[in-house]
Amino acid sequence: MAIDHLDGRLIVLLAREPRIGVLEASRRLGVARGTVQARLDRLQTNGVIRGFGPDVDPAALGYPVTAFATLEIKQGQGADVRAHLRGVPEVLEMHTTTGHGDMLCRLVARSNADLQRVIDRVVGFEGIMRASTAIVMENPVPLRVIPLVEQAAEDAG
Amino acid sequence: MAIDHLDGRLIVLLAREPRIGVLEASRRLGVARGTVQARLDRLQTNGVIRGFGPDVDPAALGYPVTAFATLEIKQGQGADVRAHLRGVPEVLEMHTTTGHGDMLCRLVARSNADLQRVIDRVVGFEGIMRASTAIVMENPVPLRVIPLVEQAAEDAG
DNA sequence: GAAATCATTGGTCAGACTGCCCAGTGGATA
DNA sequence: TATCCACTGGGCAGTCTGACCAATGATTTC
Hints:
4-stranded antiparallel beta sheet; 157 residues
């Protein structure tokens, strides 16, 4: 879907100050309220904006340790492994990838010691042959989308 | 910070139906409105809930390709590389890690061909010695926090 | 060129919600 | 026992939402 310049400004504005409503947003953007409402509806319908769920910080929840694990899977065990990983709360996301590993997943844990427990639970499963883990030390660029939105808005004029 | 069982239910509820306000949430949870308000304030003050920003889907924005790149950095060039990566919109996040690579970053691109451009831009920088990229094929477990919240709520009783 | 389509504007309306206040209650603590 | 804290239930004014509407301007289609 193509992103308008106004769409971009709207998303950026909402990202910076989520609490402002449609009315205040329309004031800031200098357009009519109905326009903002229509744009928001469209963005949500097209899936560009998935929702406005709470942005939870695992560290503040008591899980300050993050790690990425690369898994090698026994042929044909993919489906089972997925179900297994889905059942582990500390697995925040999982991707299947090209390259040497077959899967890449993001883990969190309460401590480095606790990470051992999490990894044991993750890899303690039939179809997983090998796992290599990289512990995150710093996160200089936290997950972000705003620059991309601005880029997309720019591209579309 | 410790998470209450009520906190957990509140976060899960808000994650599922972000549009409901404080009042409706209090009805669903069977508590007074003031309680929900107080809990929300506390959760935000303690940083457990960072905010309620729009959840943007890069794929819907025109960037359906995701990849993870592992970078090896020349000693002492860390700071410069960070600034460089921060300036690339397609770099959605970056971590410094233990292990063979020094940095792990998540990239998106408009297509596999476009990914080449992004990678060139990412690695076309002084301090980066080597890069290996894994393209994401499937995402069986999309980024999630709810199970972790439920776990944390459970742990605290 | 003319007609039709579409997004936007600016306005109204009733209903609902928010933020804020208050007094009272119950449990836990000192 | 006295104090503190979280929760309850209530009320208040102000504001916002979602839903409409007619009019305007721009763009596309015939």
